[in-house]
Every structure is written in C-alpha cells, then in structure tokens.
Design goal:
The complex is a heterodimer. Chain A has helices spanning 3-11, 18-50, 52-67, 70-81, 85-109, 113-121, 126-156, 168-178, 181-211. By secondary structure, chain A is mainly α. Chain B has a single domain (6-246), classed as Rossmann fold (3-Layer(aba) Sandwich), CATH 3.40.50. The chains are: A mainly alpha, B alpha/beta.
Chain lengths: 213, 247
C-alpha cells in the first residue's frame, strides 16, 4: 500500500468494515507467496529426492530456514527490498519453501522401490514414470507440506504490517495502539479462522486421497 | 501371440562396484512357449540373468537375443513393453485400480479403450479374479495372493511374447503358492508365452518348468528337464541342491 493511502487509513477512526478488505489483502499476500513457494520449492524437493549430492545442502538450508523467526525474515527484507507488498511476498515465500521442499523430497523417496522397478520394467519412459507413478504416489505427503506452508504463511502474513504490506496485521496493530479491543480480537480471530480453514481444507483433501488407496 | 525365442550367447555381467563377475559365459536357448526355471542360491546371478532380457541389466560381454535379434539394438522402452515383467514385491501402483494396473502396458502402447477393457477382463478371468469384483478395487484391499495374481496379469497385459518372473510366488503361504503355481503355469501355457522365472525353491522349479537352469557363482551348472536333472545331476552342487527333492 502506498503511503498516502496508509496515512488516510490511519487518520480514519478504526472501523470494523475495513476487516473484510484487509482479510482479502491478507489472503492475496499469503496466496501469492504460497504460489511462488510452490513453484520454487516443489522442483527443489524433486531435485533433492534425485540427487544425493544436492540433497544434503538443500535440506540443511531448508532446516535453517525453518528455524529463523518470521519476523526476522521480514526485517531482513527491509534493507534489501525496502517496504511494501513485494518484499513481504518474498519473505513469506522464503518461509513457505522449506516445508514444501522437505515434504516433496519425503514423498518422492517414500515411493516403493518395487513400484519403480515395475514401472521401468513394464516399459515406462523416465518421464512417464514420474508423471504416472512417482508424482501421484508422492502427492499426499507433498500436500501435507503445502498444508503446513499455507497455515504458516497465513499466520506470518500478519507480521507483514511491520514492513507496510497491509493485511489483517494492520487491524491488529491498530487495535493494540488505539485500545480498540473489538477490532483487535476480530482481526486476530479472522487470521486464526483463515489459517484453520485452509488447514482443514487441505487436510480433508489429503485424507480423501489416502482413503482412495 | 505366440512365444518368442530367447537366446543367451556367452553372456557376462560385471558390476562396477563388485569384485567378481555376476555372470560368466552363460549360453543357452529357450524355445518358443517354453517354461524355464532358473534356480540357485542367493547371489548366484539368477536375477541378474533375468534382468538382461529386458535390459534392466546390460551385459558387459556377450549378447541376449529375442527372436534372434540382439536386444541392444532395440529401443529399451519398446522392448520392455513386449516383455512381461513380474517381481516378488509385486510393485502394484497403489493409486491405480486393479484394472488400471493390469491395463498399464496396453495404455502405454496406445490401445483403444475397449480393447484395453477386454484384455483386462480376459486376464483377470485367467488368473481367477472375477473382473466384476476386482476391476475397481485398490491394491491395498487385496490379499497377498490376489496381489500376486494381479502382478502376473499386469505383466501379461501387452500380449508379450516373453514373460519374466522373479520369485513371483515368494511372498505367499504354501497353500496359496501351490494354487498360484498351477494357475499361472496354465495361463502362460494357454497363451504360449515363453516364460523365464527365477526361484530359489527347487520344488517349485520341478513342479512347473519344462527345463531347469541351475546356476551357481554366475555360471550355469546344468540345464535340463526336471527328470533328467534328478536322474543325472551334472555336478555335486546340483546333486546336493536337489537331494531332498528326489523321492
């Protein structure tokens, strides 16, 4: 959000009706970051599962990535990319990559060796083997990683307000600063509900997939 | 489709990470429609020999021929689609139904839908699995014996001229095993499919093979009909291996 708009928002009395707009902003922020993380994390996970050489370093990097607090990643973006939505998306995407990468790697490596041997022995090309056997068998585990990433991203997007990226964090901070408890609780509850809904939705999808097997 | 012939011509395999040869100077021919068992202790090279036929293992010397053609001159993927392959661990695709598993090679070969369906039903009936009950079942809902049957049906999906089986009856109990041995042998004899199967069970080899190839240390010790092997074991090794089976 540019600064005049932000100033205008701050000048107004804190209103509940901003909540819906901010929730939308929040979801767009988290969704874009998650999409970017998927595009980067999934191939990286597939590379991990394949390459003994790159697996160690990539998983180590992912492990470190998971231990850095969200706020620290957001703060790191400040000197690099400044304030606003783009650095927030980069930061959130960086936070979402590790769980996706780790679970894609896990899911692919859990594909039974016998299924791979059979696939090759029955005459699948490497590409067919991946598309018809490896990817569908790895999908439930990979999706669990996406679920973790999605929940974390929605929660962490709350902090994006500190680098001026908007979202429901704006309402929480404003509620705190102005002593507007109803706004504070409404915003916090909305974040929690969004996170829980996405968690439950993807969880149901994973269970449905596993039940079909 | 009638069975293809298989020829092993002085086949040798040396794995890069091993000391000795996995296979040394293996030469024999398998006739069209013949059922040959490869027996021997673990590490004798029997699985390696089997896997040279569909090029999952490439010989370091010699050649493997199918219908007289060196398999190295064929595209590996095309070759594998006309050579059936069933393994002890079965390796059914857990996300596919029984019908999709059995129809996988036909679908890779680009058969039309109705031809695949007919082939799948025919094969399921041949391995004594009622298509109506089993078509849409997932592998997880199958017993060990049922899964093995589906594995063999899947291996036969693309009307292969050659069927390779590696311990296909290994993971089931003795009663189911005997029934499976009889049924699968009947199926491949009905279809005329040339069959090469690996087993460590000499009784199984005696029961279903036209000829038995006895291997030890990467070499063929003896290759002959079951009765001939029992009557005239070529070496002490063969005699000891079949000692308990003569009765």
């Amino acid at each position: 959000m540019d600064s005049p708009a932000r100033a205008k928002l701050l000048a107004q009395p804190p209103m509940m009706h901003d909540l819906a707009a901010h929730a939308m902003q929040h979801l767009i922020l988290a969704g874009t970051a998650l999409g970017a993380a998927l595009l980067l994390g999934a191939p990286m996970g597939a590379i991990c599962a394949r390459s003994g050489l790159l697996r160690g370093p990539l998983l180590a990097a992912a492990g470190i990535g998971r231990t850095i607090p969200s706020l620290a990643v957001l703060a790191l973006m400040l000197p690099l990319l400044g304030v606003g939505v783009p650095p927030a998306i980069v930061a959130l995407a960086l936070l979402a990559i590790p769980p996706i990468l780790v679970n894609v790697d896990l899911g692919i490596r859990a594909v039974p060796a016998a299924a791979l041997d059979a696939a090759t022995g029955l005459g699948m090309t490497a590409r067919q083997r991946f598309a018809r056997v490896v990817a569908p068998l790895a999908l439930p585990v990979a999706l669990s990683g996406v679920r973790t990433a999605a929940t974390e991203t929605i929660a962490s997007a709350t902090l994006a307000t500190f680098i001026g990226a908007g979202g429901l964090g704006d309402d929480i901070v404003r509620g705190l600063q102005t002593g507007n408890d109803p706004l504070l609780f409404a915003a916090a509850a909305t974040v929690a509900m969004l996170a829980l809904a996405v968690e439950a939705g993807l969880g149901t999808l994973v269970s449905a997939m596993e039940a079909r097997r | 489709m009638s069975g293809a012939t298989i020829g092993f011509d002085d086949v040798g395999v040396r794995y890069a990470d091993a000391d000795g040869d996995a296979l040394r100077g293996v030469s024999f021919d398998v006739a069209s429609g013949e059922v040959v068992a490869i027996v021997g202790p673990s590490g004798c090279g029997k699985t390696t020999l089997l896997r040279t036929v569909n090029r999952l293992v490439e010989p370091t010397s010699g050649a493997v021929l199918i219908d007289g053609v060196d398999v190295r001159t064929m595209d590996a993927v095309a070759l594998r689609r006309r050579v059936g392959y069933a393994i002890q661990a079965v390796g059914l695709f857990a996300h596919m139904t029984v019908a999709e598993n059995v129809g996988i090679v036909p679908s890779l070969l680009g058969w039309p839908r109705d031809r695949i369906d007919r082939r799948v039903d025919d094969l399921l009936e041949r391995v004594h699995l009622d298509p109506k009950r089993f078509r849409d079942r997932r592998p997880r809902k199958l017993s060990g014996g049922e899964a093995q049957r589906v594995g063999v049906a899947r291996a036969l999906g693309g009307e292969p001229g050659v069927l390779l089986m590696d311990e296909p009856f290994g993971a089931v109990d003795a009663i189911v095993r005997a029934a499976l041995q009889d049924e699968v042998t009947r199926v491949v004899r009905d279809l005329g499919t040339t069959t090469l199967f690996v087993t460590h069970d000499v009784h199984e080899a005696l029961r279903i093979a036209d000829r038995i190839c006895v291997m030890n240390g990467g070499r063929v010790e003896q290759l002959d009909a079951p009765a001939a092997i029992l009557a005239n074991p070529a070496t002490d090794f063969v005699r000891r291996l079949f000692e308990g089976a003569r009765a």
